[in-house]
Fold this protein.
Amino acid sequence: MKKIFTVLAVLILGAVCAMAQSSDYIKALNKYYQEDRQGAYSDFKKLIQKEPNNDAAYYYVALLSEDLDESEEMFKKAIEIAPDNYWYQYFLAMFYATTRREELTRNIFEDLTEKFPTRTNIYYDLINIYIAQKDIDKALETLDKIETKSGKNEATVLTRFELLANSDKLEDAFKLLELGYEEVKTPRIACMLGDYYMKRYDDKTAMKFYDEALEMDSSNAEAAFAKANICYTLRQYDRYFEYMGYVLGNQSVPSESKAEIMSDMINSGQFAAAFTPQLDTLMNIMYGSNPTDSTICSLTGAYLYRRGYVDDALRVMQETADRYPDSFDAAFNHCLLLYYSEEWETLTQKASEALLRFPNRLQLLQIRSIAFYQKKEYDNALADNAKIVELAPKDSAYCLNAYSSMGDLYHLKGDTKKAYSCYDKALKINPNYSAVLNNYAYYLSEEVTAMGTKIPAPNNKYLKKALKMSRKTIEQEPDNATYLDTYAWILHQTGMDIEAKAHFKHAMLYGGKESGVILGHYAEVLQTLGEKDLAEVYFKMAKNFND
């Protein structure tokens, strides 16, 4: 309560200080404006003892006191000394409102409207009180007084509308709104009436009001957006894009809203595909109107990349990251686009620069580790993943990915023991993580191949463990060609070639023919089963991939 009064009190500084004041008063007032509340309170209290008729001193004590009873008493004393001071009475009313004594607030405001009939702000305050007390008739009566004294304006028309709308008289509210519009034509009211008729599927009338709104204000984005939606519904796409251009180029429309509108359009499937040139134009309009907004720049960069304009996309993202060096999102989005573009050298550089500004951010460490992996800098990739685990040991998603990556990296380095240890840690987090189960199983089967013998699964700890893990992957993703290949290959290693052949045939239907490794494995199984001619066909297909 006190904070509210402190802010509002600035409004009446002129009125309170109009009379000549003593040095003691000025000293206390200076403390008040220096936010020394306790010092000001003490000085004004002392001033009351010296100057018992100083109404301003009582007023400030009322503002500063932490005792509600004292505040009320001081407000009343100030009014008793200066009964014609509008602001003392106004703030006593606000005091009653703050302490939830609506009836006392109402009484003071009603009295103020009689004493100060030209102050229309009192009437609006009084209307709010009547609304809170659900006295709509009184609120409407007060509104009539405002219009009698100062005429109709947008505020009175909209207030009358809201009064009726909030009292479940929506149709009456819009009828009155339309009547009020005949006298008070504003873009806002025109748009409201346009929205009303659009909801009633009266596009023609709705369009009339939106047109009038744009005639009054050619930059009215609300009207342009509404007209665009009507044109879209009517399949008038040329006009739709024309009005959307008004919206996306309008400086008054928040950038977040523009980005949301544009995102909806470019992700609209067949519509986006059919009108790609128009979307290119709209994107340029939006970017041109907000070339320094990080949200819009990020969306523009992503869109340009999707359209195949990779260099332009990277340029926009680079400029955005440079323009907002303190924005993590700008830096990461730039790195993300470099990742999609497979610019591994630049990605490691930019991610490293970003990590200097945003130390230990997991997303940057993760994406840099991928770049290191692609560059075959396996030790650096391992270090980044180890750092992720160190920084976020309880973040299961990041740790799962880190342990999985470390397992793959250690395997590439030939350190099987550490690779399996990392895979075990990953599976402890998620025992059903297919990517780890598949790689772990396949690498175990490679060890058996390296041994140069085939031992039935029940007697081979590697194959037994591998088969169990691999079976989980195809239970979870039965049409994944890579997982089917691993499982079928392990079956082959255990001597179950007929079963292996069935799974390889299934893999062929779901992308297996696009992998030289899978084709080669299938050929070996066919050869083992004595189907030499068919095996030769698949061996040749596999060789073509290798060549």
